[in-house]
Amino acid sequence: MEEKLQRVTLWLKKIYGNRPVPQYEVNARTIDILYELVECNEARDRDVSLLIEDMKQKATEYEAEANYLEGLLAESLGLSLSSLSSKGTSYLSVLVDSAMTLETKDTSLASFFSAINDMTSELYATESKNREMELELSNLRKKLTAAVMLEKQLEEDLKKAEELLEVEKAKADSRSQNLKFLKNKSEDLKIRIKAAEEQLAATGLDQSLTHESLMSLSEKLAGLQEEIVPLKKKLESYLDLTPNPSLAQVKIEEVKRELVGLLRLVSHLFLIQKYKLTLPG
Q: What span, in angstroms and rounded, lies between the C-alpha atoms of 185 and 212?
């Protein structure tokens, strides 16, 4: 910790020079952070120094090569930069700039042609890649348009579904209220029927005239009416026979009994209708 603090302090003094170092809280965390900054800064300074030295070395090499080429031109052709015309100097500058742009190793025609061929191939490859990217971009635009249209359609469908849901919810609420009303009404009618039956029972009403008894008698009447149908058919088969007093008397007695039963049922049905009319509500 002490070693880190000492190194950080020296680095801060070096950074700020004659200016005062800003106050900061000295603790393990701040010291660790500043120590990491010190190491990163010193590593960067070393990298910059190495880069500067490399550039200096390359500049020296380029200068030596330029001097060599200048001496070679002067010895073999008697040319120098000072002896060239302004047009020659301009051509030479264009040649140098072209060589640097094409990144050739020298200014020979072979190097220029090779570099131009390479750049032409790269240009064709780039144009082909651009066409592929344009086609892909067009496909993406079509897909995006389709996706936007689908999104709008889904939004409309969702809106319609929400509206339909609101309508169905309102209908369900209405049905629920109606069901609740009918349930309450049914309970009220049950209570009123029970009260009416108790009141009738208190007045000495025969139990056979209660609602349950009358409903049972009504069901029995329906059953008897169904039974009468085959009896009528059977009776019709005897109408064509020669009259026999004894048999006729038997049949008459049977018919009388059936008529008595029917009269009783009719009487009960009359009482049912009368009972319904006398019920409250």
A: 20
